[in-house]
Amino acid sequence: MTEATTKLVATPGQTIGPFYGYALPFEKGHELVHRAHAGSIRLHGVVSDGHGEPIPDSMLEIWQADEHGKISRKDGSLVRDDHTFTGWGRVAVDNVGHYTFTTVNPGPTEEGKAPFILLTVFARGLLNRLFTRIYLPEDTEALANDPLLSSLPEDRRRTLIATREENGDLRFDIRLQGANETVFLTYPGA
């Protein structure tokens, strides 16, 4: 068989499973800013399956703009120095499916745009990671004009909007299947 006639087939993604804990988590991975940082918030929630049961062996990554809507271009996002905002974090959920990030409210990347946090989910039973967005609940006009949110029915749209708690923190629960399943996105080539 020659190179010209051989067709290569992509290999499937692999379930992240319990073995990821060896190499992927890192010190302060959940801390995009130090909790003492002015404007810091806690983004937290629970990852659950189609029956509403917590998934204790999942891992999450977030990517976001800073509070001014600027995307960080700094190298070294794995190095946490307690003052440089890198816009990226990774955390394993605890044994009851709960996760916590310390971050800031992202600003809009363009005037009038709804600010959001990108979220990636790795978990048992997933052959490939899942992508979604976490929108802030306050700017209802920007939310109403967001192309992604406007393309969804109201009940599905709500699965992408976080809840603001009394202390200013954000709660965002992730449901992988079933009633109130979080809307997941597909990106070409990902």
Features:
single chain, mainly beta, four-stranded antiparallel β-sheet, 24% strand
What does this structure look like?
- There is one protein chain.
- The chain has 190 residues and is mainly β.
- The strands form 2 sheets. Strands 1, 4, 7, 8 and 9 form a 5-stranded mixed sheet that branches.
- The chain starts with 39 loop residues before the first strand and ends in a 15-residue tail after the last strand.
- The model has no long low-confidence stretch (mean pLDDT 87).
- It is globular and about 55 Å long.
- A hairpin with a 7-residue loop joins strand 5 and strand 6.
- It has 3 helices and 9 strands, in the order E-E-E-E-E-E-H-H-H-E-E-E.
What structural class do you assign from the helix and strand content? mainly beta
- Please give the share of residues in helix: under 10%
Number of beta strands: 9
Order of helices and strands: EEEEEEHHHEEE
Q: What is the count of DSSP helices, taking H or I runs of 4+ residues?
A: 3
User: Cα-atom Rg, whole angstroms?
Assistant: 18 Å
- Report the biggest beta sheet as strand number plus sense, adding barrel if it closes: 5 strands, mixed
Q: Would you identify the regions where 5 or more consecutive residues have pLDDT less than 50?
A: none
The averaged pLDDT comes out at: 87
Gross morphology: globular
Distance from N terminus to C terminus (CA atoms, Å) equals: 30 Å
Amount of beta strand: 15-25%
